[in-house]
TrEMBL record:
Keywords: Membrane, Transmembrane, Transmembrane helix. It comes from Luteimonas cucumeris. This is DUF2938 family protein. It comes from the Bacteria. The chain crosses the membrane at residues 7-28, 71-90, 102-124, 144-164. It holds the Pfam family DUF2938. InterPro entries: DUF2938 (IPR021329).
Length: 173
């Protein structure tokens, strides 16, 4: 059995960890405060229609459901989290991974809001930066907050990586 190269393992660990932090945030918002959060089945539906030549929906909820859309949406959610972790680690390098700091992780988290604002939301019928939603400002603030939470999750997961991966007896320098 071949071991996973350390950079790939770090991308996976940190991306999955940060996405879990975001998902826990969503659970708190939904169950604790009744705030609606992302429906990954609808994201899966949107993705499933792309190979069929349909990129835009008015709105996605009115588009016929697709078998396996929930699994597809959740898989995509975690794959994107891993890709954004790879972006952070690629741009910040090994030194950052050994000694994570909040600012780069938070910046990457906030910059990733470009993807939903300009790709996903328009494609799913919500308009650019949620402009077609009932309360665009509220939708934008929720997206920005979620992506900031993801950035904090990148930072926390990187520190957990350092703690888990530090050689026994060496600790951190």
């Amino acid at each position: 059995m071949t071991a996973i190269p350390e950079p790939v393992a770090a991308f996976l660990f940190i991306g999955i960890g940060a996405t879990i932090v975001l998902d826990l945030w969503s659970v708190v918002l939904t169950r604790g405060f009744g705030v609606p959060t992302a429906n990954w089945a609808l994201v899966g539906r949107w993705l499933a229609h792309i190979p069929r030549g349909r990129f835009l929906h008015e709105p996605i909820a009115a588009t016929p459901a697709v078998r396996g859309e929930r699994l597809l949406g959740w898989t995509f959610h975690y794959a994107v989290g891993i890709a954004f972790a790879a972006l952070l680690l690629t741009t910040q390098g090994a030194d950052w991974l050994r000694h994570p700091t909040l600012l780069p992780a938070l910046c990457v988290g906030l910059l990733t809001v470009v993807f939903p604002f300009f790709v996903m939301q328009p494609g799913m019928g919500a308009g650019i930066a949620a402009s077609r939603t009932p309360n665009p400002t509220q939708s934008r603030l929720r997206s920005l907050t979620a992506h900031a939470v993801f950035g904090v999750g990148l930072y926390l997961s990187a520190w957990l990586w350092v703690l888990v991966m530090a050689p026994v007896g060496q600790g951190q320098s």
